[in-house]
Amino acid sequence: MKLNPIIPFEPISTESVPTSSDWVTQIKWDGVRMLTYFDGHEVRLMNRKQNDRTNQYPELLEIQKYCSATSCIIDGEIIAFDQKRPAFHEVMKRESLRNRQSIELAVSRTPITYMIFDIIMYNDIWLVDKPLFDRQKILEEVIIPYPNLQITQNFTDGNKLFEVMKEHSMEGVISKDLRGTYLIGGKDKRWQKKKIFRDLFAVIGGVTMRNGIVNALLLGLFDNGKFVYIGHAGTGKLSNEDWRNLTELIRPMITVDRPFANEPAREKDAIWIKPEYTVKVQFLEWTSNGTMRHPSIQSLVGVQAKECTIQQIEN
Length: 315
Prior knowledge:
There is one protein chain. The strands form 4 sheets. Strands 3, 4, 5, 6, 7, 8 and 9 form a 7-stranded mixed beta sheet that branches. A hairpin with a 5-residue loop joins strand 17 and strand 18. By secondary structure, the protein is an alpha+beta fold. The protein has helices at residues 88-95, 100-109, 132-142, 158-167, 240-250, 311-314, and strands spanning 10-13, 23-28, 32-38, 43-47, 72-82, 85-86, 112-122, 125-126, 149-151, 172-177, 187-195, 198-210, 213-223, 226-233, 271-272, 278-283, 285-286, 292-293, 296-301. It has 2 domains: 10-195, D-amino Acid Aminotransferase, Chain A, domain 1 (2-Layer Sandwich), CATH 3.30.470; 198-314, CATH 2.40.50.140. It contains 6 helices and 19 strands. The two termini are 34 Å apart.
């Protein structure tokens, strides 16, 4: 049976962690959502946007070594570590690779772990109408211990887990209703996320430079066709080499026209560029002026600019 890719179920944001005994809470991993499709013959890996990432993670393709199902769709998150913590910029090193030799080298240089948290189809039977409790039992039965993957652990005290995540500067937690079914392409309160830091994908609309090298980015989001300034960031996880590469990358995109519909606070010395290149940025909260407080650049990403909309704030 050919398995067509699906849009996975998504959590909504919450300010309070559910405390009912019908709920469990899991660590929110700072990685890339990835679904594994196995039709009995072929394994494919597809991300949340249904982009094929099968070639990027060859260590996950021998599915018989870690799953006893004759066919399945598994839902999870691929993470990579920066020292002791999962880091989005590390897993992006794997996501961006296309050359076979580079991918083979990256398997050892940037090892990944597949954190599995759900099973959507098992032995040609769809499980989306079964409660999470039953899906997790099936998952425990079919997953075989394997070096590059783990089943995400459930915690009954979500607030305690959230405090632990704060202590370790992790991304946050996701709480899930054990009675809840799986809604393909949906998003509702059956899954609820509470983040320590907020994050989003933003578009570069301008830069500032020091000694001829980009040292800060002016960022924006699209809102009904208008490109709106949301703040500037010069700190984060970009290396010196990343900044140099970005400097060369944006040169052909320089324009005399300010791309933002509103006036940035950091307009002096800004060099405007066409809003096409995107980054993942992490921040603490929104200010009263609609800009990010304490933004930190996590990674350059390949997300299309048109997908970086103001609707991310509502999620």
